[in-house]
Amino acid sequence: QVQLVESGGGLVQPGGSLRLACAASGIIFSLNDMGWYRQAPGKERELVALVNSGGMTNYADFVKGRFTISRDIAKNTVYLQMNSLKPEDTAVYYCNTGRRDSRSNTYVTLWGQGTQVTVSS
Questions:
Q1: Which terminal residue of the chain has fewer beta carbons within 10 Å of its beta carbon, N or C?
Q2: 100 half-sphere exposure, CB direction, 13 A CA radius
């Protein structure tokens, strides 16, 4: 069974740092893309960062070099290091995995349950 479990969220002051972790079960990193998304109250879910199955990374423009996505293949875990946090970073952060299923020719995705990040003084 495929499962994603996020951790590491919490309350932090502006300018502080947090590291989120997403532990994956039942997937192979060499075949899966991994990503971090976030959703703030009243807003749509948006991409924060991703690393594809080949190890290539992409970041949303609003990250502006503050966040870094990385993965530990042996542990099937993807991380999001968040530095210089701002109040507007407050959101529920979700882990996502996806890959193309050859048999059905569809892109199959799975979401984690989310972890709350609150940036406030």
A1: N
A2: 4
